[in-house]
Amino acid sequence: MPASRQFLCRTPSSHPGRSPLTPPPRFQAPAPPSSRPSGQGRGPFNGAGGAGRGSAAAPPIGRPAPRAFSAARGAGEERRAARPPIGRRGAACAAPLSARSGGCGPGGGGRGCMAAADGLQFPEFADAASLLAANPDATTISIEEPADGTKSQRGRPQEPGREEDDELLGTDDSDKTELLAGQKKSAPFWTFEYYQTFFDVDTYQVLDRIKGSVFPVPGRNFVRLYIRSNPDLYGPFWICTTLVFAIAVSGNLSNFFIHLGKPTYHYVPEFRKVSIAATTIFAYAWLVPLALWGFLMWRNSKVMNIVSYSFLEIVCVYGYSLFVYIPTAILWIIPQKVVRWVLVMFSLCLSGSVLVMTFWPAVRDDNRRIALATVGAIILLHALLSVGCLAYFFDAPEVDFPVPIVPAHNGTTLIKAQ
Amino acid sequence: MAAAEGGGAGAAAGPLFAGLADVSISEDIPVEGEISVPVGSHSPDEDYSTLDEPVKDTIMRDLKAVGKKFVHVMYPKKSSALLRDWDLWGPLVLCVSLALMLQGGSADSKEDGGPQFAEVFVIIWFGAVVITLNSKLLGGTISFFQSLCVLGYCVLPLTVAMLVCRLVLLAGSGTVSFIVRLIVVMAMFGWSTLASTAFLADSQPPNRKALVVYPIFLFYFVISWMILTFTPQ
């Protein structure tokens, strides 16, 4: 017996053949006890007098089962035509006094309610079985209410073979195509609380995200795994700031060690480079996500089933992926070319893989060339950043092989400095 | 029904309040008395007018407050003097003196010198504002200016380190002096960070303390780096 919420709306005049259904009203004081079967509770969804009489107990409220309502034959049109506005009462469905959504008004949504012959009557909600038992000829329409409401509400068909991509795609919250994931940020943007929602992370969460960016698990999406629709601005901002100072300080130190011992070298702190580093890194960490987000939005409007991330999530991924450059910058102090380039490759692989694994599922469904071009552009920009920083902030290490001796004309030897 | 009830009540209450209809304040019932607002606790400044005191007293009072806070920073205990009576005079004095002492390190090349006065100023104040905003966004309960006050006052050990560095550099600029400077700056950096953490840590939510302390660490690290790399021309 499928349990469901059953609402019935009929006018007694249209069904002369049936027994008039006078439900035991909820709020009417003089209720004839004989019309109520004993042993039934007084819940608001109790069986209608006619339908529930002698049947099993009505289901409790709120069972998350398929909701079915039976539209009595012939009463359907009347009910639809006579679905009254809130204020109307009468031969048509009567709205209950309570504010429950099972009302007969426009918000009733097609559920029926018992009409009574006189005055204000209250709807009775019976389960489908009992109503069907009462009038087995009624046409029944069933609305399946999915147990897992979010997934099936998406219109996107889940193709076979993509189940393992659910973790990558994250179809549960991929519909956030607005600029910021708007579900929990409900404060208006001019209040302080709005910005506090971007800093709603704990220490262990930040550490987990950093760990996830340094040790990318192949096949797992950083956004799905770690961010989980709670993007924060703490990580990107402070990682970028630390990177700025790490690059500036390491560059300065490395230059100092390289040129140490030369008589003509005078150490300068090179403080200007801090502002240049800051501009570069913050521009990269904010403008490239903006461009990428705009591009993904544009492609999303053309190809419907591309998953899209919110702007903050892209900023988060980029910010956390820059973390691996901090130890790289410190290790770049070592004045060996080979070591430096190995470090470049290694860090590019690590942070690039985080980015690729995040964005490949987002562009995979698109045109093949565009997808490859997008991913290629992401990696290229990332590589450009690291190589550019290495070239600008770190002087080339001197190669120490013996300098060639050039014989001069007048016999003195000139040692040609490198 | 309500109206009828009101009417009935009115009719029933007639004899009770009959006199009210005839009350006119000025003639029948003399109203007199005293209305006195209880005077709240005056701050000690308002017991006597501070306009008449000599200027020296005014200045000395503020200087004493600043000096007391300096002492609290150098010996950080769990006192609330910095937090309760915050002021920004001390941070201003410290910032200006630090920026002035960091001058003279970049004479020749305009590009690769040390930080200019404006750069030091901006780094200290802007950095303190950013750290305060960060701690408030993470859910801290400290007020904006209290946090600025604490961060500014905790620059004091680094200013002392700058002074020591300049004196050491007067003696010479070799490796030994560098090591001495390194040790002094590192010690003062640790002192600054610990002092500010001691004052600020209580106002943070417990599971985010590290998130708040790290920017403070970075802030004082940058200032220490500027001090350590100072080379006079």
Automatic annotation (TrEMBL), chain A:
<dbReference type="InterPro" id="IPR006977">
    <property type="entry name" value="Yip1_dom"/>
</dbReference>
<dbReference type="InterPro" id="IPR039765">
    <property type="entry name" value="Yip5/YIPF1/YIPF2"/>
</dbReference>
<keyword id="KW-0472">Membrane</keyword>
<dbReference type="Pfam" id="PF04893">
    <property type="entry name" value="Yip1"/>
</dbReference>
<feature type="domain" description="Yip1">
    <location>
        <begin position="214"/>
        <end position="386"/>
    </location>
</feature>
<keyword id="KW-1133">Transmembrane helix</keyword>
<feature type="transmembrane region" description="Helical">
    <location>
        <begin position="310"/>
        <end position="335"/>
    </location>
</feature>
<feature type="transmembrane region" description="Helical">
    <location>
        <begin position="233"/>
        <end position="254"/>
    </location>
</feature>
<feature type="compositionally biased region" description="Low complexity">
    <location>
        <begin position="54"/>
        <end position="74"/>
    </location>
</feature>
<dbReference type="GO" id="GO:0016020">
    <property type="term" value="C:membrane"/>
</dbReference>
<comment type="similarity">
    <text>Belongs to the YIP1 family.</text>
</comment>
<feature type="compositionally biased region" description="Low complexity">
    <location>
        <begin position="83"/>
        <end position="98"/>
    </location>
</feature>
<dbReference type="GO" id="GO:0005794">
    <property type="term" value="C:Golgi apparatus"/>
</dbReference>
<dbReference type="GO" id="GO:0016192">
    <property type="term" value="P:vesicle-mediated transport"/>
</dbReference>
<feature type="region of interest" description="Disordered">
    <location>
        <begin position="1"/>
        <end position="98"/>
    </location>
</feature>
<keyword id="KW-0812">Transmembrane</keyword>
<feature type="compositionally biased region" description="Pro residues">
    <location>
        <begin position="21"/>
        <end position="35"/>
    </location>
</feature>
<feature type="transmembrane region" description="Helical">
    <location>
        <begin position="274"/>
        <end position="298"/>
    </location>
</feature>
<protein>
    <submittedName>
        <fullName>Yip1 domain family member 1</fullName>
    </submittedName>
</protein>
<feature type="transmembrane region" description="Helical">
    <location>
        <begin position="370"/>
        <end position="394"/>
    </location>
</feature>
<feature type="compositionally biased region" description="Acidic residues">
    <location>
        <begin position="162"/>
        <end position="172"/>
    </location>
</feature>
<feature type="region of interest" description="Disordered">
    <location>
        <begin position="140"/>
        <end position="175"/>
    </location>
</feature>
TrEMBL record, chain B:
<protein>
    <recommendedName>
        <fullName>Protein YIPF</fullName>
    </recommendedName>
</protein>
<dbReference type="GO" id="GO:0005797">
    <property type="term" value="C:Golgi medial cisterna"/>
</dbReference>
<feature type="domain" description="Yip1">
    <location>
        <begin position="75"/>
        <end position="226"/>
    </location>
</feature>
<dbReference type="GO" id="GO:0006888">
    <property type="term" value="P:endoplasmic reticulum to Golgi vesicle-mediated transport"/>
</dbReference>
<keyword id="KW-0812">Transmembrane</keyword>
<dbReference type="GO" id="GO:0005801">
    <property type="term" value="C:cis-Golgi network"/>
</dbReference>
<dbReference type="Pfam" id="PF04893">
    <property type="entry name" value="Yip1"/>
</dbReference>
<dbReference type="GO" id="GO:0030134">
    <property type="term" value="C:COPII-coated ER to Golgi transport vesicle"/>
</dbReference>
<dbReference type="GO" id="GO:0060576">
    <property type="term" value="P:intestinal epithelial cell development"/>
</dbReference>
<dbReference type="GO" id="GO:0000139">
    <property type="term" value="C:Golgi membrane"/>
</dbReference>
<dbReference type="GO" id="GO:0005802">
    <property type="term" value="C:trans-Golgi network"/>
</dbReference>
<feature type="transmembrane region" description="Helical">
    <location>
        <begin position="212"/>
        <end position="231"/>
    </location>
</feature>
<dbReference type="GO" id="GO:0005783">
    <property type="term" value="C:endoplasmic reticulum"/>
</dbReference>
<dbReference type="GO" id="GO:0042802">
    <property type="term" value="F:identical protein binding"/>
</dbReference>
<feature type="transmembrane region" description="Helical">
    <location>
        <begin position="150"/>
        <end position="172"/>
    </location>
</feature>
<dbReference type="InterPro" id="IPR006977">
    <property type="entry name" value="Yip1_dom"/>
</dbReference>
<keyword id="KW-1133">Transmembrane helix</keyword>
<comment type="similarity">
    <text>Belongs to the YIP1 family.</text>
</comment>
<dbReference type="InterPro" id="IPR045231">
    <property type="entry name" value="Yip1/4-like"/>
</dbReference>
<keyword id="KW-0472">Membrane</keyword>
<feature type="transmembrane region" description="Helical">
    <location>
        <begin position="117"/>
        <end position="138"/>
    </location>
</feature>
<feature type="transmembrane region" description="Helical">
    <location>
        <begin position="178"/>
        <end position="200"/>
    </location>
</feature>
